[in-house]
């Protein structure tokens, strides 16, 4: 169900929803069963596709039952064992053996978060494509460059689009890196792997407990890591990259909001019937996409801060409250980022650029845009009369555009 108080939340689909996290937890438990069977700890009959075997879980009931133990894994396991008991008794017997709740929920959140970042990256690729096209198409279209809200020197809209692209490319590199470093979590009750090691000893298996942890990670397609119960860098790192991405999109949205003001009107959002209206003023065409993208850019830093505050508050081998406060913040951060990624992709793909109005404003600004050029010319010959043409005072704008568009085509850092 979409969030009524976060317009556009439907764009995030099922990502990091309660249902997605439960499915991910079942996948983690199922992969662990398969690892136990592979190591000779559990019988072959214990290896079961838990997502299929368990079926639909009543999320409302699960949420209510989660209060008793402080996390949703405990009541979820009760449902799993009850549904497995008749048809898959060995799976019911061995499910979760050697794990702790934090292993399952951390890995499930990582699994769901990775899928969300993948979805964000699909939208980022669309942004890169659209911004590269804008930079190329408008590389020679002059506009007023503004600094501290005032006219400064001439630029081109192609350069502005290329600078937007620069931020998005940096965000894409960071998101890819963070996604690829999201690890599985296996540590047992206190991060020692004592329970898995004991199960392996009792079964006579020659497999080491760390190898069992490696096996789980491999089955889930995640990197292996030593237990990170109290080292929250995997989550804070990813949160920070999402904030940097929303910041890049927020910068685009802020520029559009400014340049779409009626008194400037150099840019306009893509037109969609029914979008941007007012409840009382029929003449309004509000730049709603940019408003909502900017909203996300303003909200996400606080969500990431919550994760950092939690990380700094971890104590002992597993904490009291600091772990628990991460979950909803992480889910909101992921969903809000995906929503904004989609909105930004739509914004830049359909952005209307009035290059004629831009050119007229450059002409109207007149010699003020070339004050810097005149001051530099005077250093050499006060009597000189250089060609004061805004089109001839664009510096290396073309080269900057070329560099960023080439980086976009290469798909990575320059």
Describe the structure.
It is a single chain. This protein has 15 helices and four strands. The protein has a two-stranded antiparallel ribbon with strand order 1-2. It has two domains: 1-99 and 186-227, Fumarase/aspartase (N-terminal domain) (Fumarase C, Chain B, domain 1, Orthogonal Bundle); 104-183 and 228-414, Up-down Bundle (Fumarase C, Chain A, domain 2), CATH 1.20.200.10. Helices cover 60% and strands 4% of the residues. With 414 residues, the chain is mainly alpha-helical.
Overall 3D geometry? elongated
CATH architecture of the largest domain: Up-down Bundle
Query: What Rg, in angstroms, do the CA atoms define?
Result: 27 Å
Low-confidence stretches: none
Distance between the termini: 41 Å
Keywords:
414 residues; mainly alpha; Fumarase C, Chain B, domain 1; Fumarase C, Chain A, domain 2; two-stranded antiparallel ribbon; 15 helices; 4 strands; elongated
Outline of the structure:
This protein has 414 residues and is mainly alpha-helical.
Question: What are the SSEs and their pairings?
Answer:
Blueprint: H1 18-38, H2 50-54, H3 59-69, H4 73-84, H5 89-94, H6 101-137, E1 142-147, E2 150-156, H7 157-180, H8 194-203, H9 209-220, H10 233-259, E3 267-268, H11 288-312, H12 326-349, E4 352-353, H13 355-365, H14 371-378, H15 397-410
Antiparallel strand pairs: 1-2, 3-4
Helix pairs in contact: 1-6, 1-9, 3-4, 6-7, 6-12, 6-15, 7-10, 7-15, 10-11, 10-12, 11-12
């Amino acid at each position: 169900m979409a969030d009524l108080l976060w317009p556009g939340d439907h764009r995030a689909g099922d990502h990091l929803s309660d249902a997605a996290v439960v499915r991910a937890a079942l996948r983690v438990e199922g992969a662990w069963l398969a690892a136990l069977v592979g190591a000779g700890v559990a019988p072959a009959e214990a290896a079961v596709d838990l997502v299929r075997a368990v079926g639909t879980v009543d999320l409302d009931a699960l949420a209510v039952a989660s209060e008793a133990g402080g996390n949703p894994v405990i009541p979820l396991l009760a449902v799993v064992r009850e549904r497995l008991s008749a048809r898959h008794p060995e799976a019911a017997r061995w499910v979760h053996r050697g794990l702790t709740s934090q292993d399952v929920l951390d890995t499930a959140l990582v699994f769901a978060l990775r899928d969300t970042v993948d979805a964000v990256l699909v939208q980022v690729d669309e942004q890169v494509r659209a911004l590269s096209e804008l930079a190329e198409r408008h590389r020679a279209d002059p506009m007023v460059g503004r600094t501290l809200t005032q006219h400064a020197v001439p630029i081109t809209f192609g350069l502005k689009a290329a600078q937007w692209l620069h931020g998005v490319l940096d965000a894409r590199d960071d998101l890819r890196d963070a996604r690829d470093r999201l690890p599985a979590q296996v540590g047992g009750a206190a991060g020692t792997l004592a329970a898995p090691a004991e199960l392996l000893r009792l079964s006579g298996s020659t497999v080491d407990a760390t190898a069992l942890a490696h096996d789980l990670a491999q089955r889930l397609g995640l990197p292996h890591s030593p237990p990170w119960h109290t080292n929250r860098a995997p989550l804070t790192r990813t949160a920070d990259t999402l904030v940097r991405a929303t910041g890049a999109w927020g910068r685009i949205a802020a520029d559009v909001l400014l340049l779409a003001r009626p008194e400037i009107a150099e840019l306009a959002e893509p037109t969609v019937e029914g979008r941007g209206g007012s409840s009382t003023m029929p003449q309004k065409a509000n730049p709603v996409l940019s408003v909502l993208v900017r909203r996300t850019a303003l909200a996400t830093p606080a969500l990431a801060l919550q994760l950092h505050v939690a990380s700094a508050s971890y104590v002992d081998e597993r904490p009291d409250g600091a772990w628990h406060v991460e979950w909803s913040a992480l889910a909101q951060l992921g969903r809000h980022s995906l929503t904004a990624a989609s909105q930004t992709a739509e914004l830049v793909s359909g952005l209307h650029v009035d290059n004629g109005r831009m050119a007229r404003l450059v002409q109207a600004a007149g010699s003020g845009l070339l004050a810097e050029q005149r001051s530099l010319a005077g250093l050499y010959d006060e009597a000189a009369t250089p060609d004061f043409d805004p089109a001839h005072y664009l510096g290396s704008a073309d080269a900057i555009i070329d560099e960023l568009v080439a980086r976009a085509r290469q798909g990575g850092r320059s």
